[in-house]
What does this fold into?
Amino acid sequence: MSLTLRQIALREITLHLKEPFRISSGVASHRRILLVELTDADGTHVWAECVAGEAPNYSPETVDTAWLAIREWVAPRVLGRTFENAQNVFPALEQDFRGHRMAKAAVEMGMWALAATRAEQSLSRFLGGTRQEIATGISLGIQESPAKLVEKARAAQAQGYRKIKLKIQPGSDVAFVAAVREALGPDAPLMADANNAYTLAEGDALEELDRFGLVMIEQPLAWDDVVQHAQLQQRLKTPICLDESITGPDKAEDMVALGSGRIINIKPGRVGGFAASRAIHDFCARHDVPVWCGGMLESGVGRAYNVALASLPNFLLPGDLSPSARYWERDIVTPEWTMNGHGMVRVPRDAPGLGITVDRDRVENLTVRREVITA
Ligand code: OSB
Ligand code: MG
It folds into this structure.
């Protein structure tokens, strides 16, 4: 079933986080969220979300660069053009158009959702997803003391989370992880995420973490590195998981060829959308590399896309797919995303498309900027 896009509407909303989220490269107390509405020539309509942040402290993209990129370069390549299927959108966005993957992904993923909606299938089934529910983890920001982190980690364990990720940085690492391991016991599935806070020369602190039996350590070194991570992995027993460095299937191939890590965190926004995510997923499945779905503090719209992706078979580890209430007093979707006491989030598999409805009145009230682009 072919796709012809008639309109792209951009809007920015502000959502306040229940508590500030601190990682080694910055802190967020609210999210400026870029929402995208796509309308097909036959009137089919979907919402999508661009995961770019306010500042370029995770990747070079921001809300503002993504807005510009969608208006100037993404929209002209897709509006009014007929695509045989959603798989063909990504190549059209890659042709002589470098980077801006989060901007591309927002529209590309929306095209998959449009195609699923028109095929009257859930996005999960349309993508080839097989899971009914997804094991879920929580990502805990850097806290001011080990005791504070232990408090958060205990609460997460009590809520049933299947994986607890501790953000670390030099000075907030060994003592923090030690305290949580001690409090939660030897079997608690713990991991750490450094968001590039270390250099290879500081590898000693990371070697010290080996004794805590972490499931993995995420992206300890530079955001675009796969070479030094290979040297570090040789020194560590703990598997390295790459996040920032994996910007596409080529980097996943480099990781496996060089031994830069043993696990990949797939965030569809980071890699340019679902075609690239599925290619990484399939490549990793062939090479026995488990993957899991990361998060970017998305609203309930972005979460719908992540949950659908995480239902694919090689998503073998719990995703950063916390329920709406972990982030917001109130989400912008109905129903809100929930997690059961066993740390599982249900995949919408029966309704066509995303399986959630956007609360348009609430979104209107939260909107700070908008722009409509037509063919
Ligand atoms: O490194 O995974 C990360 C949030 C913003 C930027 C980077 C990261 C994160 C998270 C949040 O860890 C995970 C979530 O959405 O719950
Ligand atoms: Mg990460």
User: Anything to note?
Assistant: Residues 23, 58, 139, 193, 195, 243, 294-297, 320, 322 surround 2-succinylbenzoate (ligand 1) (CB under 6 Å). The chain has a mean pLDDT of 97. The radius of gyration is 20 Å. The first strand starts at residue 3 and ends at 23.
